[in-house]
Amino acid sequence: MHQLELRKQVCQANQALASSGLVRWTSGNASGRDPATGEIVIKPSGVLFDDLTPEKMVVLDASGHVIDGDLKPSVDSTSHLYVYQNMPQVHGVVHTHSQYATGFAVAGRDLPISTTTHACLFGARIPCSGLASIGETEIGREIVRLIGDGSAVLLRNHGVFTVGKSAWDALKYAVYAEESAEASFLAHQLTGEIPELDSTFVAGCRSMYLNDYGQEKENNSNY
Amino acid sequence: MHQLELRKQVCQANQALASSGLVRWTSGNASGRDPATGEIVIKPSGVLFDDLTPEKMVVLDASGHVIDGDLKPSVDSTSHLYVYQNMPQVHGVVHTHSQYATGFAVAGRDLPISTTTHACLFGARIPCSGLASIGETEIGREIVRLIGDGSAVLLRNHGVFTVGKSAWDALKYAVYAEESAEASFLAHQLTGEIPELDSTFVAGCRSMYLNDYGQEKENNSNY
Amino acid sequence: MHQLELRKQVCQANQALASSGLVRWTSGNASGRDPATGEIVIKPSGVLFDDLTPEKMVVLDASGHVIDGDLKPSVDSTSHLYVYQNMPQVHGVVHTHSQYATGFAVAGRDLPISTTTHACLFGARIPCSGLASIGETEIGREIVRLIGDGSAVLLRNHGVFTVGKSAWDALKYAVYAEESAEASFLAHQLTGEIPELDSTFVAGCRSMYLNDYGQEKENNSNY
Amino acid sequence: MHQLELRKQVCQANQALASSGLVRWTSGNASGRDPATGEIVIKPSGVLFDDLTPEKMVVLDASGHVIDGDLKPSVDSTSHLYVYQNMPQVHGVVHTHSQYATGFAVAGRDLPISTTTHACLFGARIPCSGLASIGETEIGREIVRLIGDGSAVLLRNHGVFTVGKSAWDALKYAVYAEESAEASFLAHQLTGEIPELDSTFVAGCRSMYLNDYGQEKENNSNY
């Protein structure tokens, strides 16, 4: 893939974070990794989503050094990098402070499997991490420790990280983590608990999703 | 009706699902059936709402075989099909994961008749189904079992299905199911219960709606 | 005022109901009365907000007979008419099902004076009516019985009516009734009660608003 | 800075208040002060955000007299002025009734440090003031009394004030005060409490933000 193409894809995913209502101001970010070269493209730090262009994206090598771009990369770059280094099949990472998912993260609660969509997309609970500092490897370690073969982790008192086959694919999981969190929140408010699906039913949903959903089966597997 | 016209109508209803905020990413769908030919037009599986065009819609015959279109139909097609086969007067079906209605579906609670608008449009509670797998006839069976002469069913831990005289008509019920769910949710949070209208008052609302509302009386009856 | 000018104003107020997020699909409506001729212009029944044009507005005489327009007027016309007939200084009426205000209406609770903005705009609680049927004089009677020298009434299990010097002016009160309801709802969820401002402080807010707010003092008085 | 430039900046910040969903109708306002001349530019009173232009902004001298502009300034001008007079390094002030922050303000509760973003941006709780009348110095006094070296204060039963190096900078704090309030609200609803970060962790977040976040370090300090 030409580097400009990856810049465009990552820029588009960052803009879609904003248009999907998952982020505010300059918080949250998407990155992508080129499977061929290992180069990582990520949002610049502290730039408004409306002001992003492909040219403003920052290019890092596999060790995290800036190899192209005039701006500083996101302070979450070390977290993205840790994930890429420890999950070779991941080629996209997204981070948001989406509202309901962050509500669960502040409460320190896993996101239960309360909807068929959660079961289809994630196949398991979305775990909530321990507290982790921004800017070093703590966040990356928590993600890798908890994500298993899933695609999302809640970061305690912080927000959400999702991983995928591309920035756009990771965005998909960020959208559905928020949908799941909202449904669980509302049910909790109505009943004081969150009715969860049993493992057999979840496995059936997950299998249907992996095998039958969408136009191309390979789009559905995690990464 | 020319097939292209039905494709346009169904495409428009799917796009309105997104612009109305009732769906996210690729989840949810609308379909329509041609009363003359029995052909069913439905959203393709796993396609973003922004990317839909009339040409991308999938055409099924009355048995559910794809007879036109390059894409795979929604995994919910079997559910739509079951409804069409068992409810001959229905010519539109809509499925969403709209937020508050899904909250009630996760909680496993019927939507009570808490507003005059609910009484006008539905005339009865919106029942919540048992758990049903996606992709086979279970969902369709639950809808047909529970819908009575109503227009909407909550799917346990899943979302909402509505039916109507056309895709656009079914969309109307999806919008109002969400309005009703939100009003009931908020009242529940204020008082711990959901004050419900009595049957005589409901019947009066329903009669007013059927006879006096809108420009053409025949638009108001369910299907 | 030329009739076309009133049609334009009322159409614009109806469209602003939709763009402000206070209404869905075809529910809710705005009307205006010409002070000179007594003619009332109102939204047609069951028409989507996106489809409204000044030409589609319906003109009624002071007795409620349609005197111009090809469409049937809103089923709420009798309610608007009752208000105009009994409140000679009112020249605009708005009806919505805005979310939080309707939540209070379903709960059967008055909107307390919990914010300075509520105190400024309304100067008193927004009362919640008894149950009233749509399409006859019941709703209008409840509004006139309860509104005092205020500008808004919650309709039990239904929604909100506001009145003003014009359709646009009534829209202002509909926006602020919803703002007040949301603030009160959220505080209630945090504390189990809704802290209310005392009457002396409310009177100070109201006086400041009536005398100092905006560009022209006469815009602030109710009607 | 040329006065027209400040008018443009302040107008843009006011329009961004509306597009960010932090304000409704004519409530809320942004102002900026020219560091060179001491002139203050502020929103005119009671004007809809859609109708604002740089020309409609009102220019005040350091004593609060209107020195340019055809319209009356915001009734909150005395509050903005008090802040500018007592906080010489502040050159932007924003006031909103954003939903969740106002919910806490009605409840009379400080905004706790429940998220890493809150810790980064504010470094401390956002305090809730006592009750203060609009239009005199009471609000300004409460802000100055409580703000410490922070950037935001909740106004009891009213809304939020934030301060910054410019109108746009103050807007940033208004956006994040609302994000923090929403996360804390949702966690409170799930658990009955709001888990708060400890002071060492908060100090680490704040230090990272001040030293490493964004493109230019000097953008991050408060004012």
From TrEMBL, chains A, B, C, D:
Record has Zinc as a keyword: yes
Catalysed reaction, written as an equation: L-ribulose 5-phosphate = D-xylulose 5-phosphate
Organism from which the protein derives: Pseudohoeflea coraliihabitans
InterPro entries: Aldolase_class_II_sugar_metab, Aldolase_II/adducin_N
Keywords of the record: Metal-binding, Zinc
Entries under Pfam families matching the protein: Aldolase_II
The keyword Metal-binding belongs to this UniProt entry's keyword annotation: yes
NCBIfam families for the chain: PRK06557.1 (NF005123)
Cofactor: Zn(2+)
UniProt-recorded name of the protein: L-ribulose-5-phosphate 4-epimerase
PANTHER family: FUCULOSE PHOSPHATE ALDOLASE, L-RIBULOSE-5-PHOSPHATE 4-EPIMERASE SGBE
Residues of the Class II aldolase/adducin N-terminal domain: 8-185
Enzyme Commission numbers on file: 5.1.3.4
Protein family according to the UniProt entry: Belongs to the aldolase class II family. AraD/FucA subfamily.
